[in-house]
């Protein structure tokens, strides 16, 4: 089983966790603990990039509660980067200004939307705090999971774990 297969299996397993019908989080989601980790990620990226990073914690009606923004002045490519933190299974997704154009962070580096050094900074910070980075190519796939979202024509795995519902 390769990394993509393991990640898809994880997405399907997390999708089946018991939780409210609104799908914003699984039963037992600890928002306070998630906030502490999101703050630690913001602080780590602020240190690693040498610029203050922002933490958006006012997100509602979504399957993610926090977004860490790396200002455009900080990364080598000069583009805003955002890290969304899902309410499910320690999942994280990194977006560039045009997230649908890159399959993963390696593709973003090849395209010049992210420098190789910044890729290392972000992946090391996420890994160090126990997050699992999910590539965009998997999140753009049509949602075929176990919830009512499967009946929505436009739903993707991004919708399920990283978007407003």
Number of helices: 6
Distance between the termini: 31 Å
Enumerate the strands of the largest sheet in spatial order, edge to edge or round the barrel.
1-2-3-4-5
The figure for the number of domains is 1
Shape call = globular
SSE order, one letter for each helix or strand: HHEEEEHHEHH
Helix content: 25-40%
Largest sheet data: 5 strands, mixed
* Average pLDDT level: 93
Unreliably modeled segments: none
Total beta strand runs: 5
Structure keywords:
single chain; alpha+beta; 5-stranded mixed β-sheet
Q: What does this protein structure show overall?
A:
This protein has 165 residues and is of the alpha+beta class. It has one domain (3-162). It has helices at 3-15, 31-49, 105-111, 116-128, 136-139, 157-162; strands spanning 54-56, 64-70, 81-86, 91-95, 132-133. The relative contact order is 0.18.
Condensed summary:
This protein has 165 residues and is α+β, with helices and mostly antiparallel strands.
